[in-house]
Amino acid sequence: MTAARWKLVSGALAAIAVLGATTACSGSSDGDNEIVVYNAQHESLTKEWIDAFTKDTGIKVTIRNGGDTDLGNQIVAEGKNAKADVFITENSPAMALVENAGLFADVDKDTLAQVPEQFRPSTGKWTGIAARSTVFVYNTAKLPADQLPKSLLDLAQPQWKGRWSGAASGADFQAIVAALLAQKGEDATLSWLKGMKENAVISQNNTTVMKGVNSGQFDGGVIYHYYWFKDQAKTKENSKNTQLFYFKNQDPGAFVSISGGGVLKSSKHQNDAQKFLNYITSKQGQAVLRDGDSMEYPVASDVAANPALPPLASLDAPKIDPSKLDSKKVTQLMTQAGLL
Amino acid sequence: MTARTAVPTRNSGPSRVAKALASRPGSLVTVAALLMVAATLVPLGYIVFTLVATGWHETAELVFRPRVAELLRNTAELVVLTVPICVALGVGLAWIVERTDVPGSAWWGPAFAAPLAVPAFVNSYGWVSAIPSLHGLWAGVLVSTVSYFPLVYLPAAATLRRLDPAVEESARALGSGPIAVLTRVVLPQLRLATLGGGLLISLHLLAEYGAFAMIRFDTFTTAIFQQYQSSFAGAAGSTLSGVLVLLCLVLLAAEAGVRGRARYARIGGGAQRGVHRIRLGLGTIPMLVVLLGALAGTLGVPLWTIGRWLKIGGAGVWHSTEIGESLGQTVGLAATAAAITVVCAFPVAWVAVRSTSRFARVIEGANYITSSLPGIVIALALVTVSIRWLPAFYQTAATILAAYTLMFLPRALVSVRAGLAQVPVGLEEASQALGKSPAATFFRVTLRLTAPAAAAAAAMVFVAVATELTATLLLAPTGTNTLAMQFWQLSGELDYAAAAPYALIMIIASVPVTYLLFTQSRKAAGL
């Protein structure tokens, strides 16, 4: 009686589920010659890499986009069943997170040989693939050059209340905080974050920070350099009223963040995954950073930066081992300061 | 959405015994319904589980901190400001359209339902492009009002259309002036409609993510998302989810308390006359200005923005391969989810309609609770549950489809239940008496008669999935790029021109269902 009916209903259900699974699952890859990249880098940049790589090697690449920290934490939560073959980030704290969980395979020696030592961790568990500098973008009409903050730490002072912005929930900003933590310790970082909570207007991302500075909503903001250079290279729509200030002097605000790439130990496509990392750090892969519109710094294979950028060596960045950046602690401190 | 106004009609067959035999839900249907209800309680169970696992000390530390107070204030201010504004706007507009001789009254109805076709995050995009500095509480109120006021407008207009003019005439005959009639006779009768709409709007406000993230306004939902981005599925995110769930329950209880047992119905014989429309005379022009102004603010701004960006972007923004792929994936997910959800709604609706037991009431109640859970809580729960206990389902289409089913089952249920309630049990009895098996009876009689309701339910789920953002961002299988995801990614990079085609397609896809909701709201009020 009802059994027959239920059978029909459940049969239909199962059929639909299978249909759904086959239509919507087409993105996941179990096939050979296909790797999955968890991508926290800018999608457009990674796509450029992938397109050229697939053309060269015939290896297909599927990407899952997300932020550094959530993808990093996600890989840790996935553990041995990680769905990713390669992990690429904008910054290094999330790489350190996965490295500390013991989930990275050793990077191929050939690949490491392409990357100078200062742009990768000594452990060789992952490698730098690009770099980006912290800057203070300011509205030239609202903020005369002599009133600029001397240090990132100044922004916690009361006179900056309501006058600057940062994208606190983004991985970029959290990388800067991680550098501050590595340089100045937990107490100083927490009190700076509390100052930020008081003073800063929180934006959704770096682009919104810059746009707000440009339109005069805030006097200045903490971002990475290339947002400004990208806009300058195009329409200047979001940056024409602004300038960049480099803190230099090994200030926490002069932090240069290393974008990282690594191969997961659990990957069933070790060879293809290593090939991809090798490609990114090769002359050809790094040239994408010089010639493309990403405006990030190449770090490997002696490829020069886009001529519009000030040389990386001139920025006088603080020296911090990228493996020592602690994203977990940063999230905790930011939660404690009420920013998250 | 029509649940609040629809009064389920119980079937009254001639023979109670025959009815009991034919309509008692079979045990397998009951089991199926029970399983569905159990599944809907998974997210709630997950929240409780993590809070217990986190331990009292850490949970307390995460709950009792200034940030939570700040989110609580933001969220409360948002609800307290937006709901009355929506009620005033919705009822006011409905009154002008239904009760005055303002020209074009047949066109205003669908026009004020139309904003529902614009997802809130697209509305936000429209406004923030028009006024780039838009942010904070009032921006949140603005965007929510233009997105959600039709949820009050629709039932209010339908009720106004149906009210018996005799009551108002009696009041006037007893010496009440027009304002007294409005405030003492008409408005009280709109209470159910406005309360129901207000509750729906409040729940939407608690769950909204994209619209508020775009204008820099933090609520619990945006904060949970930020926590997720910073720590995947950490304790802090779960704790915030717990508080959010509590807020939803408080709202449900408050609405139930205010509503009480109020019911307004016309009793006695005869049919009611059509309503008397107020002659506006010179007042016509200002009223038209009000109506046009409301339309410009709600539908005009997003459409104008999209049009502007499409013009600026030119042909270059129509990347046909990417848009085609997104559209294909969106339609695939939405159609599958719609089918599954409607199928799952059947056993639950069956029990709810054909049984008067306490069990049936428990099932309905459980459903209300789940319907109030924001998508982000459901998504967060499914991420954690699948990664920890069901790794085979983690990041598969099955998980995101399960999330959609849990989130949108109540919408399908409302429609399927109404359809099922209208199937005469006598026809099923006749079919069985003629020797057809219950299965054949179900497919040939019951299903056929409920097909229109099921189709409406499927359409509603389809659009809800096609425009869903939060859960999709968290749960979609690698490689998925729905229209909403693409729109979100592009607008996040401030590439508003490239985002415009996605916004346009999402709106176009939603139009048929908005029309459906419009016609349904009229039917429901007539029940």
TrEMBL record, chain A:
List the Pfam families.
SBP_bac_6 (PF13343)
Species whose genome carries this gene: Nocardia tengchongensis
User: What keywords sit in the KW lines?
Assistant: Ion transport, Iron, Iron transport, Signal, Transport
Fetch the PROSITE patterns from UniProt: PROKAR_LIPOPROTEIN
The entry assigns this protein to a family as follows: Belongs to the bacterial solute-binding protein 1 family.
Protein name, UniProt field? Iron ABC transporter substrate-binding protein
UniProt superkingdom: Bacteria
Q: Which residues form the signal peptide?
A: 1-26
Q: Known InterPro entries for this protein?
A: Ferric-bd
